[in-house]
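Thread: quick sanity check before group meeting

JM: Hey all, I'm pulling together slides for Thursday and realized we never actually wrote out the predicted structure for the chain we discussed last week. Dropping the sequence here so it's in one place. If anyone has concerns about the input, flag it before I start.
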Amino acid sequence: MLTLLTSMYLVVRAVSSRAEPIRVVVTGAAGQIAYSLLYSIAKGDVFGKDQPIILMLLDIPPMLPVLEGVVMELQDCALPLLRDVIPTDKVDVGFKDVDAAILVGSMPRKEGMERKDLLKANVAIFKTQGAALDQHAKKTVRVLVVGNPANTNCLIASKSAPSIPKENFSCLTRLDHNRASSQVAMRCSVSSDNVKNVIIWGNHSSTQYPDVHHAKVNVNGSEMSAYDAVKNEAWLRGDFISTVQQRGAAVIKARKLSSAMSAAKAICDHMRDIWFGTKEGEFISMGVYAKGNSYGIPEDLIYSFPVQIKNKTWKMVDGLSINDFSRAKMDATAAELVEERDTALELLSQ
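JM (edit): ok, ran it. Output follows.
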């Protein structure tokens, strides 16, 4: 019996190992977030333990020497799923036939730079990358925008790729979602997997709204609302929200570098949920195209909503009750996104 099971296992492994590799592009691939991310992708933590991977590593020309070092390290990991690593500074090479695109690279805000200058630089980057996706990627590609301002960069990329469904584009608010879940878990002295259905509404910025009105916490085997588990409404409506909103700045102040490890983990969580779906009865936060939403959010935005995912397709969680406190915060972050969008679209038309 054991021999038969062993033989069956080997046959399954042999069949699965013949699976066609998927092509995954990571931009800003020489940067610190990518350095924390690439190993997890290449060893199967995101797209499956039996899914071969071809990694396309895209960065700007001055970073190519650094990228060569990253390629050497990936080769030296001797990862069985990693079939090839292709470093490049050319978008037509980097986006060729990709199944998944993780757009990490963007122009960071520099000292003395006005917000409009930051948007202008990023509009140029994501217009180019969106057009390259449109021309070279598979039409089924799933695109995750990480580089900030992530929501508006994602909108520009999607508008620049008209032949790819807008539903295939999303931006990363999973890091904020994870931060919110962790803060509640620590407050309740439970592990983070005992917290579900927190929501990040809106922009990946300091206006985002971390909402736990619909969240559940499992405490000693009993599931209850986050408000009942925390037993501190003042904290949930005050320090909890500001802590999540300002967490990135707090990490930079402490490390003198941005959140790389936690951002990479959130990227993995986000893409794995797209590929394999969310758990039954649970939802996660993603910045997605707002068209058709039931929450009164302007439609031509990439806005973070609660979503459930099945068959690589997200569906917004509709019908959640929204109180006046939440409404005001959801509208405030939407207003910021409208302002960003209008500035970016003006720049896009120039």
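AS: nice. The domain at 20-171 is CATH 3.40.50.720 (Rossmann fold). The two ends are 70 Å apart (CA to CA).
JM: adding both to the slides.
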